[in-house]
Specification:
The chain is α/β, with parallel strands linked by helices. The protein has helices spanning about 35-40, 85-100, 120-130, 135-155, 155-165, 175-190, 190-210, 210-225, 230-240, 245-255, 260-275, 280-320, 325-330, 335-350; strands spanning about 5-10, 20-25, 25-30, 45-50, 55, 60-65, 70-75, 115. The relative contact order is 0.06.
Length: about 350
């Protein structure tokens, strides 16, 4: 059972008006995996003041628990100036709350002395390190962000192209993801000049870098499929795709078409290649069929996990004593999947 946020009255740090913020004192990502992304993106214990409409995140102590990785971390913000005795009392209360929900025979030593962190950055780094994301990886990501900023600020096209050539080896799919997020943000903010400048940068990267050529092939394949979204087009684009990333993107978009007629058509191509004596082509198509089946299973597993999470969230909201606060705490999870599940439940209830 998840640990609910605790409504906490505080003066708004911007306008000093009294507000109530739902604070997570125990962040148990075993029970609520979505809290991990909230922590990593800086949205944990976030609030928006109803008076001045400014937003922020409250620096409040909490215990981070991940039973699957045997992690127990305590965040004790240095700026609060909590005395050592009070720190230990708070840590003891939070640890006791977690251990009280675990059967005695399943309690482990890592919960007895949770590791303490005084800055959010150090805690986030520890969480990422447990996922295999090292400080070196974080430094590389920071370097990519700096390079992206430098490219955006270089408004002269010739200068921008020279910078791209200089850093050609540093561009990868992660860099394009960062650029795409920046583009989406500029579009959402209706910042037309910035959007056009970043679009020009993206076009330069597509034309001048190796990863840009791969991204362009993926986008061309998706456009071809969207122009004629049927089984025949999907199969043709999957056969033409030169890398597994492009095939995975195609399968994600075309998942509803991966049915019996689709595999019949693929099997017919394999048999035709064998009859024509083209064993190499037949073997390639057989490997493609294996890859499609494996990716379909992976997609279905991920989709089921997401539906299960959103179904559990709906149940949690339905029994919440303070619905407004519960909704605010889970705002980022109220997506299309959540509302489709809600709609289905409403129809069932009506029947």
């Amino acid at each position: 059972m998840p640990f609910p946020p605790v409504p906490t009255p505080i003066p708004c740090p911007f306008c000093r008006a009294q507000i109530v913020v739902p604070i997570r004192q125990v962040v148990d990502v075993t029970e609520e995996p979505q809290l991990k992304s909230a922590l990593l993106s800086g949205r944990l214990n976030a609030f928006t003041c109803p008076h001045c409409h400014n937003s922020g995140a409250l620096a409040a102590p909490f215990l981070y628990h991940d039973a699957t990785k045997e992690l127990a971390f305590v965040f004790m913000p240095l700026e609060l100036g909590v005395r050592e005795a009070d720190q230990q009392r708070v840590i003891g209360q939070m640890t006791k709350a977690v251990m009280s929900r675990i059967p005695a025979e399943k309690r482990k030593a890592y919960l007895i002395q949770p590791k303490q962190f005084f800055t959010m950055q150090s805690l986030v780094e520890a969480v990422l390190e447990a996922d295999g994301v090292t400080k070196a990886m974080l430094a590389a990501q920071e370097a990519k962000l700096k390079l992206l900023e430098q490219l955006i600020q270089t408004t002269d096209n010739a200068g921008q192209q020279a910078l791209i050539r200089e850093h050609a080896a540093e561009f990868d799919m992660q860099f394009f993801q960062m650029l795409n997020l920046t583009l989406s943000s500029a579009q959402a903010d209706q910042a037309e000049p910035e959007f056009r400048a970043m679009l020009g940068l993206r076009n330069n990267l597509l034309e001048m870098t190796e990863i840009g050529h791969k991204v362009k092939l993926q986008e061309d394949a998706i456009r071809a499929f969207q122009a004629k979204p049927d089984r025949e087009t999907l199969l043709a684009q999957l056969i033409q795709a030169s890398d597994s990333e492009t095939r995975q993107v195609l399968l994600t978009v075309g998942r509803p078409l991966l049915d019996y007629p689709f595999f019949q058509a693929l099997t017919a191509r394999i048999e035709a290649a064998n009859k024509a004596g083209n064993k190499a082509e037949a073997d390639q198509l057989i490997e493609l069929r294996k890859e499609i089946l494996a990716l379909r299973e992976k997609l279905d597993t991920a989709t089921k996990a997401l539906f299960d999470q959103r179904t559990n969230l709906l149940r949690e909201l339905m029994v919440s004593e303070n619905l407004d606060q519960a909704i605010a705490a889970h705002a980022s999870e109220l997506d299309e999947v959540f509302f489709s599940i809600l709609e289905a439940n409403m129809q069932n209830a009506a029947q």
